[in-house]
């Protein structure tokens, strides 16, 4: 497994007390360290790569909105902040997933983990939100389809929040399968089971607050993994958020470290049978630092043992 990250992503600095803080990235890297993964610098995405997901007008507006060095914080909404380090972090977060796709396609390794922030799965094509600026995983998925000629790719999202932005991209592109397990009700309020998309390429498995291993594993076994097999993707992306952990302060699900190891085992088994083991995972949420370290290690460790 290759690890794509960059220290510039530590310089995206929401206001003190904000849960999506630089220490999260350090916690993830601590968890991955014992695995000894080869580390690659996450490059800046290009405009053309980001504009496969986000309209030019939105990218122009963001380039205007990013604070210049020495300028103070800007707020896009009540949750989503821009510091003078955000611009480089956001372009590298998207670039990490693009570079991971290139490396996996080139056969350098079947697996990549992108340790990035800001996260991406709430960013809709024309609306950054929910701590997210660019939809990193969607940029990577469309890169696989457009630049490498893949016919079908899948995004599995086990973050505790619904990946509304990724779903919005899949809604318009039947080559992209999107499946999400998440707590409902919870921010952003989307991801109801009846949301399947006009082409039927969307699967939502909402779970109630308090749901734990048994409920979540059942949703993965009975809904997500069978639908993933039916879709037969040529590459699997994982929006790896670790905020369904029982220790997480932003939600009320009750997953444990062992559940993330299980996810790694099951997803790598699926990838081996479907697409020569090709899995590109990218960090989304996860706000308890200890749980984030342990869960990332459990998940990535299980993937690499496959
Ligand atoms: Zn989340």
In short:
With 306 residues, the chain is α/β, with parallel strands linked by helices. It is 39% helix and 14% strand.
Please explain how this structure is put together.
The chain has 306 residues and is α/β, with parallel strands linked by helices. It has one domain (2-305): 3-Layer(aba) Sandwich (Arginase, Chain A), CATH 3.40.800. Helices cover 39% and strands 14% of the residues. It has nine helices and ten strands. The chain has helices at residues 22-32, 47-50, 56-65, 86-105, 136-146, 164-171, 213-231, 257-275, 289-305, and strands spanning 2-5, 39-41, 74-75, 81-82, 111-114, 153-157, 176-183, 202-207, 236-240, 279-283. The strands form two sheets. It has an eight-stranded parallel sheet, sandwiched between helices. The N and C termini lie close together (11 Å). The mean pLDDT is 98. The site of zinc ion has 7 residues, from loops.
> Judging by the overall fold, what is the CATH architecture?
3-Layer(aba) Sandwich
Shape: globular
Name the hetero compounds present. Answer: zinc ion
Order of helices and strands: EHEHHEEHEHEHEEHEHEH
Ends apart, CA distance between termini:
11 Å
Mean pLDDT: 98
Widest sheet, order of strands: 2-1-5-10-9-6-7-8
Count of separate structural domains: 1
Helix content: 25-40%
Tell me the total number of β-strands. 10
**CATH fold-level assignment:** Arginase, Chain A
Question: What's the CATH C level?
Answer: Alpha Beta
